[in-house]
User: Fold these one by one.
Assistant:
Number 1:
Amino acid sequence: MVSEKQIAINAVLRAMQLCQRVQADMVKTDAVEKADRSPVTVADFGSQALICHAINELFEKDAIVAEEDSQTLQANPQLMQGVVGYLNSFVEDSLSPQTVCDWIDRGSGEVGERFWTLDPIDGTKGFLRGDQYAVALALMLAGEVKLGVLGCPNLPLRLDDPGAQRGCLFVAERGRGAQMLSLDGQLSEGIHISRTSRRFAESVESTHSDLDAHAHIARQVGIMEPPIRMDGQGKYGVLARGEASVYIRLPNPATPDYRECIWDHAAGLIVVEEAGGLVTDIDGQALDFSRGRRMTDNRGILATNGELHPQLLECIHRWPQSSK
Ligand code: AMP
Ligand code: MG
């Protein structure tokens, strides 16, 4: 029988190809800045349909908790046509709109003892800019992430080499370490956090966290290098492979009650943990993926190489706006 890991890898790779195709067409036909949200929506739905269908074929009983559902699609025939068109170029059959909706809605499952969680495109804004985004899939068992596959189609294999090949797949299984694969299958290597790297990774979008607070805290722990700003969960990948020592996500003061979605962190968390790092919320609590689609009992994210964790929690605790 094909393993969960192999199914997840194959499904994410196919979804990445679909996203890349949509992104390439988008760049050709639109000035990316002017693009409306439809290209990303086509890729979101297409990616979710492919991955949910692949899981369903082998793990019919498993729940899938994914970001999208088919409602918007059903209300928009033109969008539907786009999604069906891209999907038909990936499967042998010519799919009906109803089949596509059924595949997408396979992702409307509930959090439970065993389930998958999926972000078909994490970092939508990066996707629209022609920049970084991720396809993130994780398998959850008894409240713990068991497997994570994180596809980053535009991420160079090394950040310090701008000419490096682009496209990374991060894979981690509980107790078995973390790997990075290139998309052409030429590279597959174990990855580890770094104890010497001194850089923060954070969101590009200023509304998704508190970039001023991050800068202040970085200075407090003696980190002077500029942060690595990146959309989507690729931030977990660069931490896991040692290019950053911290991925920090303090709640934005304008949205202090924001609670993180499980699919935005499950795959990234296991990649970092299996590479030797540590992931908690900003109060030092373990992320609780069992509460539902959002982590209602956690605030923000702190992922580090482990060593810097206590010191950073202390700084965060002292930061005025982080008090509960
Ligand atoms: P990033 O690319 O790291 O900025 O993360 C993208 C994710 O941020 C999206 O998938 C959203 O789920 C999430 N997001 C949206 N609004 C907020 C917010 N106010 N605070 C934190 N995260 C948010
Ligand atoms: Mg997301």
Note: The CA atoms of residues 170 and 237 lie 7 Å apart.
Number 2:
Amino acid sequence: MAVHFHEEDLPAGVLVNDRPLAVDTETMGLVTHRDRLCVVQLSDGTGDEHLVRFAPGSTYDAPNLKAVLGDPARLKIFHFARFDLAAIQHYLGVMAAPVFCTKIASRLTRTYTDRHGLKNLVEELLGETISKQQQSSDWGGPVLSEAQRDYAASDVRYLHALRDELAARLAREGRSALAQACFDFLPARALLDLAGWGEADIFSHV
Ligand code: MN
């Protein structure tokens, strides 16, 4: 297992298979139009993680990364895909679908709790511990610390295993089709966020 660090794009051919891809992003904050995309993390599930870092003023001209994210034949696994899809769409100009979102799968199956954070899922379902200490750190600096790199990589390290477990629970509870319908809607949900309907619920009566 190793963490590979890249600047501005993913090198060609570093993903060793065409399996589902675990994806996460780190940004300057939660306001997508204001807070630039700093890091995209990827794992193909074989044990290595790849971090692609974008410098201030980046043109986000990353053809290899855009090709894998935009590949309609490759499933992308996220935790809270809604945010990452919007950031990737806004800065890289691609919709990273089709999607499996572990947070939605957790909400649809783990109805006995309101703890749906990645750390909670990794602990309960996989018995592993990840640190969230670097979550709100400065991802825009010239050098990413060892702790930041480890944190960024750990955010994609467990998504394949979580998907396997959550897919089994969705099947057990008879909610696989409902989950799939929610995943299929996620690109539109991200586009609504970018277009200004972030907080409004367009399905609401009032
Ligand atoms: Mn993250």
Note: The radius of gyration is 16 Å.
